């Protein structure tokens, strides 16, 4: 009889806790959906600062904006954390392709971190390969003095588009040095794009210092189709002129950090962030202005609701995710030198689209503790908890301190239509979708702060 009574009491306690958690989830959602400032903040960032590559004057203005906006959340403390970042300068660029017997100027973007032609025009024949296997089979004599067109198509059979990105991005990252090894003058790639459009996509590339640093440009899908047809019909030419280069010196910049001090365990820290920098095209709205303003919104909502989390909550606008990850390294190094105890680091860097899931990189017992509450997320459209998700800015926390990681998983179908393009603008972010992402993040942080991961 006594054991049955204890069992019933335990069940009643669990039911009460679940009901209270559900009410808190709803309370957080109502505050953000009805009173959020994140969408307006994103508008200001995109329209008054615009794109903001690390080291540029625009990035410095973005830091000033983030410092001011973070303070407006009501955070207990806001500070700037120094980090020295590279500055890649695009300059003027043009690409003419021989199409239908004449040179035609086409839309193209130099790949980030690439070395240009010093403003000189490179004129050469174009040879097309569809993948690295085809390229590796070519003799050096077939490549030397040519421009290599890596015509690798995005695999549309991947439903989760980040898998497609991971599959295709190697051509952007490794293509220039592979081609240079065989004496190519430059490369052109088909953009990492899901879109049925003609927006070229930039993004970082990497050089092997053993070979020449040759120019590299990307085409949108429609123009890539035209170049493909021209290559099949013969061996077309290209005229490429680029000024891009890496500035010789690092530039002092900053992570912007806002904090709400924990009430019971202030030494335990939960970090949430997105990256403030962007590539130097578009407005960096989805990549990653959305993540920055969502992170700030969590602090604002907690303050507006009078929530007093047990653990310390930090929102971080990281600098230099796109082409160096210096901000993430600086944050992890600071945490290690100060012997800070971070119990979870979360990143939102997959666009401002409707949230579909939460991903985790942590031990199974830690994940299981969060998943006890997964049914509470169902009314908010969060159904997928299966993915290993972290982020470039928080990965150093895992590597150097063993911190568990998590990440927001938005619907990915449209992200790589706009990613790293001139089309990544404020108008392509929906206010409800953006707010729903902030809701899910705030709910996750509240759950972990109250329940812990141990």
Can you put this structure into words, describing what you see?
By secondary structure, the chain is of the alpha/beta class. It has two domains: 23-87 and 249-451, 3-Layer(aba) Sandwich (Aminopeptidase); 89-246, Glucose Oxidase, domain 1. The protein has 13 helices and 17 strands. The protein has helices spanning 2-35, 38-49, 57-72, 132-137, 140-143, 161-181, 221-233, 285-305, 326-337, 364-371, 395-401, 415-418, 431-451, and strands at residues 77-85, 88-89, 93-99, 102-106, 108-110, 121-129, 147-150, 186-190, 216-219, 237-242, 245-246, 251-260, 265-275, 311-318, 341-347, 355-361, 405-410. The strands form three sheets. Strands 4-3-10-6-7-8-9-5 form an eight-stranded mixed beta sheet.
Helical stretch tally? 13
Find the CATH superfamily of the largest domain. Answer: Zn peptidases
Class of the largest domain, according to the CATH hierarchy?
Alpha Beta
What portion of residues belong to β-strands?
15-25%
Shape: elongated
The N- and C-terminal alpha carbons lie at a distance of 33 Å
The largest β sheet comes out as:
8 strands, mixed
Strand line-up of the largest beta sheet: 4-3-10-6-7-8-9-5
How many structural domains in the coordinates? 2
The total strand number stands at: 17
- Decide which structural class fits the backbone: alpha/beta
Instruction: From the 3D structure, determine the CATH topology of the largest domain.
Output: Aminopeptidase
